[in-house]
Design a protein that fits this description.
By secondary structure, this protein is an all-alpha fold. It is about 85% helix and about 0% strand. The protein contains three helices and no strands.
Length: about 80
């Protein structure tokens, strides 16, 4: 259990760091694709943080997977929006 918590912590930190970089790039360029990726990585980091409070983190419930689906939908919407304009 200890190693699972450590690895989830690494994933949380990496996701939030990637989200912060994408948000910074969005502030510089105002490209909505960077905003979409930044928001998706931050949502994914928060979602993985919620996994830390479960008894069995590898068996997440449907709500946690719905959040993951939402973050992927944000990325897909950003890509579609970028290709439309």
């Amino acid at each position: 259990m200890m190693i699972e918590g450590f690895l989830l912590g690494v994933i949380v930190a990496s996701s939030l760091t990637a989200g912060a970089f994408f948000i910074r790039f969005w502030k510089q360029t105002r490209d909505p694709l960077f905003l979409g990726f930044g928001v998706a990585f931050i949502i994914e980091g928060i979602n993985r943080f919620a996994f830390l409070f479960l008894d069995h983190p590898h068996q997440g419930g449907p709500v946690l997977f719905a959040v993951r689906l939402f973050s992927y939908a944000v990325i897909l919407a950003a890509i579609v929006n970028k290709n439309r304009t």
